[in-house]
Amino acid sequence: MAQDMTQDMTQDQAFLELTGISKNFSLTRALDEVDFSCKRGSVHAILGENGAGKSTLIKIMSGVLQADSGTMSVEGKPVHFLTPSEAAASGIVCIFQELSLIPDLSVAENISLSNPPRRFGLIDKKHQNVIANELLARIKCEDVDPNSLVRDLSLSRRQMVEIAKSLGKKPKVLILDEATSALTSRDVETVYGLLDELKNDNVTSLFISHRMHEVERLCDTLSVFRNGRHVETFGKGERTDRDIVRLMIGRDVDAHFPPKPERKAKKPHLIVNDLRWENVINGVHLEVGKGEIIGLGGLDGQGQKELLLAMFGVLRGLEGTITIDGKLANPSSPAEAKSKKMRIALVPEDRKTEGLMLPMSIADNLIASSFNQVTTGFLIDTAKEKAVVAEGLAKLQIKIGSVDDPVATLSGGNQQKVVIAKWLMTDPEIILLNDPTRGIDVGTKQEIYKLMNELAAEGKAILFYSTDYAELIGCCNRVAVMYDGAIVAELEGDAITEEALVAASLNIDTNKGEAA
Amino acid sequence: MSIFPTLTPENKPIVIASVFILAILAVGTAYTLSTQGTAPLLSPNYLLQQLQTGSFLGIAAAGMMMVILLGHIDLSIPWTLTAAAMMATTVGGDLAIPTGIAVGAAIGLFNGLGVAYLRIPSMIFTLGVDSVVRGLMVAHTGGFAPQTAATPIMRFLAAEKILGIPVAIFVWLAVSIVIAVILRRTGFGRSIYATGNREGAAYLSGIRTKAVVVGAFVTSGICAGVAGVLLAGYSAKAYQGMGDAFLLPAIAAVVLGGTRILGGQGRYIGTVVGVILIVLLNSVLSIMQMPEAGRQVIYGTVIISMLLVYGRTAKITS
Amino acid sequence: MNSLLSQFATNVRQNRGFYGALLMLIVLFVVYNFMHPRGFSTPVLVQNANEAVVLGFIAMAQTIPVLIGGLDLSVGAVMTLTACIASELVNGSPAHMIFGMVVTIMSGAAFGFANGIIIVYGRLQPIIATLATGAIAIGLALFIRPKPGGDVDGDLNWAVTNSLFDFAETYHIFDDGKAAWFQPIAWIPVPLIILFGMAAIVWVPFRRSLTGRTVYAIGSAEGAAYMSGLPINRAKIAAFTLAGFFAGCGGLYLAIQTSSGSADIVQAGSYTLNSIAAVVIGGTSLLGGIGGAVGSLIGALILRVISFYFRILSIDPLLQTLVQGLVLLIAVSLGAIRTLRVKNRLELFR
Questions:
Q1: Inter-chain touch C128–B291, beta carbons under 8 Å
Q2: What's the Cα-to-Cα distance from A414 to each of A390, A406, A408, A419, B272, rounded to whole Å?
Q3: Please, are residues A102 and C220 in contact by the beta-carbon 8 Å criterion?
Q4: Residue C151 has what pLDDT?
Q5: What is the mean pLDDT of residues B89-115?
Q6: Where are the beta strands (DSSP E) in A26-172?
Q7: What is the layout of strands, in order, in the sheet containing A281-289?
Q8: Interchain proximity A83–C229, CB inside 8 Å
């Protein structure tokens, strides 16, 4: 049905067209038979939850990734981009979230990085500055000195330089991936104006944003993605905010959650008070009791990760207090955080770089946090080590061939279980989970939910950050939603609903959407 | 790749290097049989003598391996070794050996603090420390070989024999056992692998990575100190530049033994094999009366070609 | 005028390491000349320049691999190899000498090119690969010159190791160097002209080419460089080729200066290590992406000027390495202070 809709929309002037595009990352399917097209001169929004496949889609369009199957065509001609520069040559230019600027080169050098103006075969610095000034003026950034280094610019200025750089490639399709997220309000107005200008020049803009008001103001067409599939494309004004939120979430909840444990009304075990750090954490207050599972919600990048790192002793220059069991804690390192005094465990965001030593064996990874438990005298007691490792494996039912296999050979789900098992072996009281189910299969997800319940029943205090709303609803006694480094809403019990969570994290009022 | 399909990445280099050792012995023996009609390379006495000279390199390489496993390097080994030897002979008496080892440990501690806390690339920091130590030693001795001699016990450990086996080999063996046990059976040793593989993940596992780095450099310094004390015993005295010939062979031995130059992977037995390989390669080349020129070229070519067989880094795609 | 000033201020701010080194060099050198009994005279300058040229070239050579975040441990050995080649070839008729010089420098570049190919297509770590190729270079040097010696044209030696006046006199140009217009520049030492001339005609254009820009981009953010479609393999090979080229220049000068070649392993090693020190002192980051060859040139000059002080102050020259080591440690420690200000400790590991 969705496909018919797409074809209706774009029968005539489809500029960029994708048919049957699929992409897998080891076990997860990031894109599933996606058909998508966009017209010349259209400002086209792509909406979806975290992990809906938006980023993968635009990476394929712009040549960073290659699709496993499916075809792509520009103006009816089939294309196959192996590198970003090939895509740029066909007029498709992307402004990435993770910037493609070289920090140690100047603004002017970055703007004409791969195709600088030349004179007598050498880079013409004067002309390069002229180009930079023209492009910067076009986005009203005359205050940026083309000679200054990108590393010396603020994040918002860098983002604008990135925009100038992509304009310099004379795009026919400009893809903006959360391009306004780091900008000041003045810059946002400038970008809006720019998009209007581009529309007049018949340039297509693909716009990814979590800000609904932005989408409403700018875009003429909207496409919603969910779970790697293209759900629907429609014109502006054809759907209410509330409908759009529903489309993004989907009706079917595809995971079953174990019953929630009773909340014990004891005094809180962990208290975070007025925590501040570098304008990323802006005065967080949070209480977690023993036996409670507290969710951290909100969109990506609202300070949730930093909050967990702060509680684990990673961040320097922290203001505010972290109290455990009535005693001031404020750990200064993960080693201190895991010590007998505090007993904190953190399952970090990226298991491949932060959680595991991938080339090392499963046993070595499991034992990495608990050497002192298996050491008698100076030496590791290998019999004890084997027993502890076996116990950890059994507790999480990790299916493996041999404990000596590199952990890299395991599936994503089993890898994540190894990380969790590693921490459970330290017998923690406080467990911090940073999106532990991202990118793992449904079966393992459910095992993790079950485990969280068991741990809570044992009296552990669990703080659980997830980008999946269904998980927060299914698992948590209470959910704190973060926005811009602060907790903007705390939902409890039955008040934890999809609508409430989405609304709180998007900062829109769903009731208003319904009224309209 | 297909020749050794069942070997783990850690063991493959060790097996290849061992095969290469046998090849060196075979080629060398074929050469001596055809030119002199004898096979000295296969005589136990000759091999033991080679291993005796190899034990100094072996001990220095053991320490170097600890540092390379972290993805760092210790370029201060030449003058750490020399300083330990010089101070040991200067102090003399019963305190000679403890002094030598203490000098090595102190230099290693300084290296470790600079690398772990200031996060200065070890390449440059240890290079600077090497210059400083060299300057201090030259000032101490006036640029000449010190007049003091090695103590009898140093002589015994380096140059005497027990049951026909050079004592130096026993010392190497003892150091080897200590290092191998540290790497396999202590939290410190396991933390070295974890930190060398991915420092961030090790840190987030609650490993005190700074202490691990400092500890590895101290171990490297101690090993260089022991090697220096032994070498002074072997030569009966310490002398200027006595450590210069150890730096590059120590690095080469560690890398040829399969330790990844970027850290995190490698077995201690590989380093032993690497040391034997280099020592035997040298002795076969000298039996063949290969001029220094040919030796250097062969030396370099062997390292490059063995690395091309097993040392390639993963391809960078983005 | 105002904007020129502010541009200059920006430039200084962005290249603090370089300007700091330059200031240090000027202060050290001026003070040295005041203290020297015959300070500010051409003979002193000529002598100083001669002692600095070879290290200057080797430091420039080391800079470019360092800029991509690598290291070339073979620069000293390549210098030794090319010096031995030059000691065989640079004599006879002028045409023959020029041929010999070109062959010398080109063999340095060819050796560097081979390094680059091995590193890029063999996917080996630069440190360990150049450690091994360095041994090969020394071996080849020993083949060419088992014993120190050689025969380099004496006139050439005289001409390039003295002032411009002596150069003109040797080759009977500019009225044997007595032309009136020539006098204001006649005092300049030829070695300095060679050193800075090479930097100007090779390094400066390279830096302004797309390949040169890619060298910086690789050292700064290799992933972003790839995303931007820059020629990464070409730039890496070029970096090592240029390192070989400058090492060849250093070797050629060394041969002419000493009128001989010598496959001296110790000397090769000490030049390699000093080159790293000069690069760091000159403001280039060992992590890549920041710095430049001219800075390394300044760094090399600083190391040399420090050694001049030992002579005039009659300090025991034996303390020289101690002071050089301390200078190096202090220089890198100052650069490392920013790591103490990192707020998110995870960033230390990236």
A1: no
A2: 15, 12, 10, 9, 36
A3: yes
A4: 83
A5: 95
A6: 28-39, 43-48, 69-74, 77-79, 92-95, 118-119, 122-123
A7: A281-289, A268-277, A319-324, A327-328
A8: yes
Fold for A268-343+429-516, please state it: Rossmann fold (3.40.50)
Interface test with A, best of C214, C344, C347, C350 (most A CBs within 10 A): C344
A144: Cβ–Cβ under 8 A, 6 or more apart, which residues? A107, A136, A153, A157, A160, A161
User: How many Å from the N-terminal Cα to the C-terminal Cα in chain A?
Assistant: 26
Q: What is the separation of C-alpha C120 from the centre of its chain, rounded to a whole number of angstroms?
A: 24
How far is residue A78 from each of residues A58, A72, A83, A204, B12, measured CA to CA in Å? 17, 6, 16, 18, 46
DSSP string, chain B: -TTSTT--TTHHHHHHHHHHHHHHHHHHHHHHHHHTS--GGG-HHHHHHHHHHHHHHHHHHHHHHHHHHTT---TTHHHHHHHHHHHHHHH-GGGHHHHHHHHHHHHHHHHHHHHHHS---HHHHHHHHHHHHHHHHHHHHTTS--S-B--HHHHHHHH-EETTEEHHHHHHHHHHHHHHHHHHHSHHHHHHHHHHH-HHHHHHTT--HHHHHHHHHHHHHHHHHHHHHHHHHHHSB--TTTTGGGHHHHHHHHHHTT--TTSS---HHHHHHHHHHHHHHHHHHHHTT--HHHHHHHHHHHHHHHHHHH-PPPPP--
The answer to whether the beta carbons of residues A284 and A485 sit under 8 Å apart is: yes
* A316/C205 CB distance under 8 A: no
Radius of gyration of chain B (CA): 20
Q: Alpha-carbon Rg of chain A, whole angstroms?
A: 25
Chain A hits for C289, CB-CB cut-off 8 Å, are 102-104
Residue A286, both tokens: 């949070």
- Chain C residues in contact with A145 (beta carbon < 8 A): 10
DSSP string, A374-434: HEETTEE-HHHHHHHHHHHHHHHT---S-TTSBGGGS-HHHHHHHHHHHHHTT--SEEEEE
Measured between CA atoms, the residue of chain B closest to residue C341 is B118
Burial of residue B10 (CB within 10 Å: 0-12, 13-18, 19+) is: middle
- Other C-beta atoms closer than 10 Å to the C-beta of B15 total 16
Rounded to an integer, what distance in angstroms lies between the CA atom of residue A513 and that of residue A498?
15
| CA–CA dist C98, B57 (Å, integer) | 45
- Which pTM does this prediction carry? 0.84
Task: Decide if A104 and C216 are in contact by the 8 Å CB cutoff.
Answer: yes
Nearest CA in chain B to A337: B206
What's the DSSP call for residue A295?
A: E
CA–CA dist A423, A396 (Å, integer): 12
What does R_g of chain C's alpha carbons equal in angstroms? 21
Break chain C into its structural domains and give their ranges: 56-161+189-313
Q: Write the CA distances from C133 to C1, C75, C84, C118, integer angstroms.
A: 51, 10, 17, 10
The residue of A357, A364, A386 whose CB has the most chain B CBs within 10 angstroms, and thus the best one to mutate to test that interface, is A357
**Spans of all domains in chain B:** 55-271
pLDDT exceeds cutoff 60 at A184: yes
Its ipTM equals 0.86
Cα A486 to Cα A284, A463, A478, distances in angstroms = 5, 16, 16
Report residue A139's pLDDT band, with 50, 70 and 90 as the boundaries.
Answer: confident
pLDDT in tens, B156-203: 999 889 988 999 999 999 999 999 999 999 999 999 999 999 999 999
Q: How many CB pairs lie under 8 A apart between chains A and C?
A: 83
How many residues are listed for chain A in this entry? 516
Q: By the 8 A CB rule, do C226 and C232 touch?
A: yes
Handedness of CA B183, B189, B192, B197 (dihedral sign): positive
Say if residues A297 and A487 touch (Cβ distance below 8 Å).
no
Residue A264 DSSP label: P
Q: What is the least distance, in Å, from the CA of C116 to any CA of chain A?
A: 22
Question: What six digits make up the tokens of A308?
Answer: 């967990």
